[in-house]
Amino acid sequence: MNNVAESVEWIEVGKLEDIPKLGSRLIKRAEGDIAVFRNSANEVFALLNRCPHKGGPLSEGIVYGKTVTCPMHNWCIGLNNGEAVAPDEGCAPTYPIKIEGDTVYLSLQQSNEC
């Protein structure tokens, strides 16, 4: 029986310290850029760099807890699930992250269905 996690392809993002605390690092790609965020607890998350509201660049937003605030219209998006915080509605695609030692890896396979 194949383990799905074993079939995931991972790309190296860099070292944990390469991602600014309470900030992000942008992974550029033709299908849409992915923002890799690091919060104050050194947790790392990855979202499509597009707010579900008007497409604002989430990588330029303010990170607090497990949330990022879009810089365009202040929508709050959950870093762990990509869901807009109520009363707003919508979803930003999320991507799996893993950390081995101090190296961060990203899967380009979307984790949620938006």
Radius of gyration: 14 Å
Which runs of at least 5 residues are low in confidence (pLDDT < 50)?
none
The number of domains is 1
- For this structure, what is the CATH homologous superfamily? Rieske [2Fe-2S] iron-sulphur domain
Instruction: Let me know the largest β-sheet.
Output: 4 strands, antiparallel
Order of helices and strands: HEEEEEEEEEE
Average predicted confidence as pLDDT: 93
The largest sheet has its strands arranged as 2-3-4-8
Total helices: the number is 1
- The CATH class name reads Mainly Beta
Query: Based on CA inertia axes, which overall geometry fits?
Result: globular
CATH topology, which one?
A: Rieske Iron-sulfur Protein
Distance from N terminus to C terminus (CA atoms, Å) equals 29 Å
Number of strands: 10
**Amount of beta strand:** 35-45%
Oligomer: single chain
How much helicity do the residues have? under 10%
Structural class: mainly beta
Q: At CATH's second level, what is the architecture?
A: 3-layer Sandwich
